[in-house]
Design a protein that fits this description.
eight-stranded mixed β-sheet; alpha+beta; 498 residues; Aminopeptidase; four-stranded antiparallel β-sheet; Immunoglobulin-like
Length: 498
C-alpha cells in the first residue's frame, strides 16, 4: 500500500500544452546552406539557423541541411525571402504540440527504434536468461520521484562474481531527452553478450575486464520522453515546488549538475532553468545511485553518453591549468574521437576540455581517479530521426572498441597486501610527481587490494601508505611502453602500532 501511494505521486499533470505561443508555425527548411546553420559543440553557433541544445525556443533540430523551427508568419516570410525552401508542417497555438510534431513525427509518439526503459530491462533479462554467466543485474538505487529501480549490469566471462581485473563503465541518459546514450549502451550490451565466444575482440574484453553498463541513469525523465509526453524533458521528475504535481515543464533537477565536485560552480540555483543543480550536492537519488556504484567498484575508464555536438569533453581546464593526468587523458580522448565518424561522414569527433564543476566527468576523475569522458553523440538534435539512429550507434561502437584497447595500458597494476597475513589492504597509492591538490588521493580496492592506473611510459615516484603500516616510498618505478607493469607492495605493521 505504501508503494502504491508513492507511485501515485508520479501521476503527471496532463501534459497540457495549454500555453499560447506567438510562434504558431512548425516550419521545415530544406537545403539550408552550411553558413546559415553552422553550430559548434553543444552551444548554438553563429548561423541564423543553428541549433542550441538548451534553448528550444526557435530552432528544434538541424539534421544535415534540414532545419525544423518554430516561426511566426513574419519569420516564415523572412526565410522565404532568403531563398530557402520552406514548408509549414503544422500550425497551432499549442507550443508542446508543435514540438511533439517536430521531434516525434506525424504520430506524435516516439518511433519504436528507441527503447523505453521497460523494454531495455526486458531485453537485459532475456540476455541474462540465455547467458546467465555473462551478464548480471544490480539495483543501484531508485529514482527520486517515482521510486523506479535504477539498474547497473556487470558483464564479463563470469559476471556472477567480482574479479580482480580492470573495470570500465558506460552510462546513458543523465539527461532524459538525450536518448542516444541508452541506445548505444543497449547495443553494446547486445554486442558483448551475444559476441562472446564468436568475436575475438569481444571475447578478449570479457575475459580480461569487468564492463559495467547503466543504460539509463535518469529513469523517470527518460520515461517522460519515450512515453510521448514531452520530448523536451531534460531533468528528472522531482516535484521541486512540492505542489503534488509532476511533469510540468521545466520542473525537476538536472541530474548531471548534482555531483559533489565543485558543486556550486555547476548549473544554476534557479529551479526554473533547465540546468538547475538541486538544493545541495547529491540531493537526487539518481546521483546517489551512481555514487553507490562508484564506491563499490573502481573504474579505470568511463563514458557518459550525451547529445549533441560530435565532441568529447574530458577533465579538465581549471584556472587555466590542465588536469594532473592531462597527457594520458587527452591521448585517450583524442584516439577515441578519431575513431568515431561524424554523421555527415566528412570527419570524426573532436575533443575539448570541460570545466571542473558538478558533472559526472570531473567528479569521477577528481574523486575516484576514473578517466571519464562525456561523448556528445550526433549533431543538431537531442534525439534524431529514426533513419539516423543505426549510423550513430555504429559510429559510437567504434569509439567503444578504441576505448577498450586502452584498458591494456601502459600503466601500473598495483597490489597492496599485509606483509604478514597476505590480506589485501585499502592503501593510498600516491604519485607526487603527477598529482596535486585538485584531485583526491587514489586507493586500492577493499576486496583485492588492487588498483590499475594508466600512465605515460617512464619512471614514476610511488608512495604507498595505509594507516597502521609503515609507508613505502619507491623513487623510480619503471613503466613500460606497453601493457601493465605489475607493482606488488607488502606493507609491514608500524612499530608504533599497538
Amino acid at each position: 500500500m505504501i508503494r502504491f501511494m508513492i507511485m501515485a505521486t508520479c501521476v503527471l499533470a496532463p501534459v497540457l500544452g495549454q500555453e499560447t505561443y506567438q510562434r504558431t508555425l512548425l516550419v521545415e527548411l530544406r537545403h539550408v546552406p552550411a553558413a546559415m546553420r553552422e553550430a559548434h559543440g553543444v552551444a548554438a553557433g553563429s548561423g541564423t539557423y543553428s541549433f542550441g541544445s538548451y534553448d528550444p525556443e526557435r530552432i528544434l533540430s538541424v539534421v544535415g541541411d534540414t532545419v525544423l523551427m518554430l516561426a511566426t508568419p513574419a519569420e516564415l516570410g523572412k526565410a522565404t525571402l532568403e531563398g530557402l525552401e520552406a514548408t509549414v508542417v503544422m500550425e497551432s497555438a499549442d507550443k508542446l504540440m508543435l514540438i511533439k510534431r517536430a521531434l516525434y513525427g506525424p504520430t506524435l509518439m516516439l518511433d519504436e527504434i528507441y527503447h523505453s526503459y521497460d523494454r531495455i530491462v526486458r531485453r537485459a533479462e532475456e540476455l541474462a536468461k540465455v547467458h546467465p554467466r555473462l551478464i548480471t543485474r544490480r539495483m543501484i538505487g531508485e529514482t527520486t520521484q517515482c521510486k523506479r529501480p535504477i539498474y547497473a549490469y556487470r558483464l564479463s566471462n563470469d559476471a556472477t562474481k567480482a574479479q580482480a581485473r580492470p573495470a570500465v563503465l558506460f552510462d546513458g541518459c543523465h539527461h532524459s531527452n538525450e536518448l542516444m546514450g541508452a541506445e548505444i549502451v543497449l547495443a553494446l550490451m547486445e554486442k558483448l553478450v551475444t559476441g562472446y565466444g564468436q568475436d575475438a575482440a569481444v571475447t578478449a574484453w570479457m575475459d580480461t575486464l569487468e564492463i559495467w553498463l547503466v543504460p539509463v541513469v535518469n529513469v523517470d525523465g527518460h520515461d517522460m520522453v519515450t512515453s510521448g509526453r514531452d520530448p523536451r524533458w531534460r531533468k528528472n521528475l522531482r516535484d521541486v515546488n512540492s505542489d503534488g504535481v509532476t511533469g510540468v515543464y521545466p520542473e525537476g533537477v538536472d541530474v548531471n549538475r548534482g555531483y559533489d565536485f565543485n558543486w556550486a560552480m555547476g548549473g544554476t540555483g534557479d529551479p526554473d532553468k533547465v540546468s538547475y543543480r538541486g538544493p545541495y550536492p547529491f540531493s537526487e537519488a539518481e546521483n546517489r545511485a551512481m555514487r553507490h556504484l562508484a564506491a563499490t567498484r573502481q573504474f579505470l575508464l568511463s563514458v557518459s553518453y550525451h547529445s549533441q555536438g560530435e565532441v568529447i569533453f574530458y577533465p579538465w581546464v581549471w584556472n587555466d591549468l590542465p588536469a594532473p593526468d592531462d597527457s594520458v587523458i587527452k591521448r585517450i580522448a583524442a584516439d577515441v574521437a578519431a575513431h568515431i565518424p561524424t554523421m555527415d561522414a566528412t570527419g570524426s569527433y573532436t575533443i575539448a576540455p570541460g570545466g571542473p564543476s558538478s558533472q559526472s566527468y570531473p567528479w569521477l576523475y577528481g574523486r575516484h581517479g576514473t578517466i571519464d569522458l562525456i561523448i556528445e553523440t550526433g549533431k543538431g538534435a537531442q534525439f534524431f530521426p529514426p533513419a539516423e539512429v543505426p549510423g550513430i550507434i555504429a559510429a559510437n561502437l567504434k569509439g567503444v572498441e578504441t576505448l577498450l584497447k586502452h584498458t591494456a595500458g601502459p600503466g601500473l597494476a598495483v597490489q597492496v597486501t599485509d606483509a604478514a597475513t597476505g590480506m589485501p589492504l585499502v592503501a593510498q597509492v600516491w604519485l607526487p610527481q603527477i598529482e596535486n591538490e585538485t584531485v583526491d588521493r587514489r586507493t586500492t580496492d577493499a576486496q583485492f587490494g588492487r588498483m590499475w592506473r594508466l600512465l605515460e611510459p617512464g619512471r614514476h615516484q610511488v608512495i604507498v601508505s595505509c594507516k597502521g603500516y609503515s609507508t613505502v616510498a619507491l623513487r623510480a618505478v619503471e613503466v613500460g611502453g606497453k601493457g601493465w607493469t605489475p607493482l606488488e607492495v607488502r606493507l609491514k605493521l608500524s612499530s608504533s602500532t599497538p
